[in-house]
Amino acid sequence: MTKDFSNPASMQPDSPLLPSLNLFTMFRLGLFQMGLGIMSLLTLGVLNRVMIKELAIPATIVAGAIAMNQFVAPARIWFGQMSDSKPIFGMHRTGYVWVGAALFTVASFLAVQVVWRLGDSVQAQGLNSAQTYGWIGFLAFVFALYGLAISFSSTPYAALLVDISDEHDRPRLVGVVWSMLMVGIIVGAIITAGLLRQVDLDAPLATVQAAINRIFTVVPAIVFGLALLATVGVEKKYSRYSVRSILVEREDQITLGRALKILTASRQTGLFFVFLLVMTLSLFFQEPVLEPYGGTIFGMTIAETSVGMSVGGRILHIADFGGLYGQSWPAEGHLNYLWDSIGDYDHGGAESDAGFDGG
Question: How far apart (Å, rounded) are the C-alpha atoms in residues 126 and 316?
Fold first, then answer.
């Protein structure tokens, strides 16, 4: 049965009014983004430095392998649509967040072990050997799995933010959550610097391996705990998904094609995704060379490049693009304006909010 969205009366919830988000819950939700910030520092600020500087793996190979986690990003569309239609653990969003967090934390540790094997192969047989090519391919595959796991968790998480918020509290929620991403980068740098403080610039490889293995065991476990703490109980208490969806309990309620139509219906949506494309490219252009540059040219240790080069570069880029975004978007709230413009699109009697949740 569908609702008549041309009649305002039919837009009223069929269930009692759900509670509004409080500031504590917003900051709790931000713990997940904080965890992603920490993980980005480990994979893009520490691991690439070790591969290029300490293991002498060519930057082209390192950049290509790490880029695989972004290459699989289009899978986010599919994962979002899956979370719309197929709950995990009885929840449309939270189950995906938990499973994805477990997978990307395990994948990050696996990537480190493959890096050591690749470094051994490069030292023993050089780059032009079948064994080295095999390890390069396997490393790229692991980073692709890591990217898929990130997408599997972060896309339903973004949809959860829409599900649990209303127009009046959504801008504040988005602001808090994305601020926590930068907090995570800073916290990750502090943790990494503390755990790597004993690793000198020319420390033996065995010392570097022991320290990196410890970091990629302890920190991902903390990140997984943050993901659980951020989301447990939130969806059941605050989610408006069942109210906003029009064909509840049907797997075909929001098809992938339907979601794509909604996402492409608004010019503002297209501009927003162009902005995201440019921002992502600019953020990651620096990644293959920034930390190795600090180690090679300035003689900085891994701990020092993690704090100085990695944190400084990321926060400056995020701040720069945040300023550009704020200048180019209408004053009534950046992401809220985007969501509202998508919500204005009504095609065939389907509520567009529900379609956007999975994007």
Answer: 38
User: In the structure encoding, which two tokens stand for residue 293, read together?
Assistant: 């540059």
Dihedral of the CA atoms 266, 268, 272, 277 (nearest 10)?
70
The residue ranges of every structural domain in the chain are: 22-357
Spacing of C-alpha 99 from chain mean position: 14
Q: Which two tokens stand for residue 217?
A: 């065991």
Q: What is the DSSP letter of 45?
A: I
Which residues, 6+ apart, have CB-to-CB distance to 148 below 8 Å?
Answer: 72, 75, 103
Which tokens is 252 given? 């075909």
Average pLDDT, the chain: 78
Residues in the chain: 359
Residue 20 CB contacts under 8 Å (≥ 6 apart), including other chains: 166, 168, 169
pTM: 0.76
Q: What is the pLDDT of residues 313-357, one digit of tens each?
A: 555 555 554 444 444 444 334 444 444 443 343 333 333 333 334
Instruction: Read off the tokens for 72.
Output: 């699989």
Chain-centre distance for alpha carbon 29: 14
Is residue 69 within 8 Å of residue 150, measured between CB atoms?
Answer: yes
As assigned by CATH, the class of the 22-357 domain is mainly alpha
Cα 104 to Cα 36: distance, rounded to the nearest angstrom:
10
Question: What are 238-271's pLDDT values in tens digits?
Answer: 888 777 665 444 444 556 677 667 667 777 877 8
Under DSSP, is residue 347 helix (H, G, I), strand (E, B) or coil?
Answer: strand
Cα 262 to Cα 80: distance, rounded to the nearest angstrom: 14
pLDDT of residue 311: 60
Predicted pLDDT at 144: 96
Six-digit token string for 325: 């975004």
Instruction: Please list, in sequence order, all residues whose beta carbon lies within 8 angstroms of the beta carbon of residue 333, skipping any fewer than 6 positions away.
Output: 170, 171
Quick check: 243 and 15 in contact, CB under 8 A? Answer: yes
Q: Cβ neighbours of residue 233 under 8 Å, at least 6 residues apart? A: none
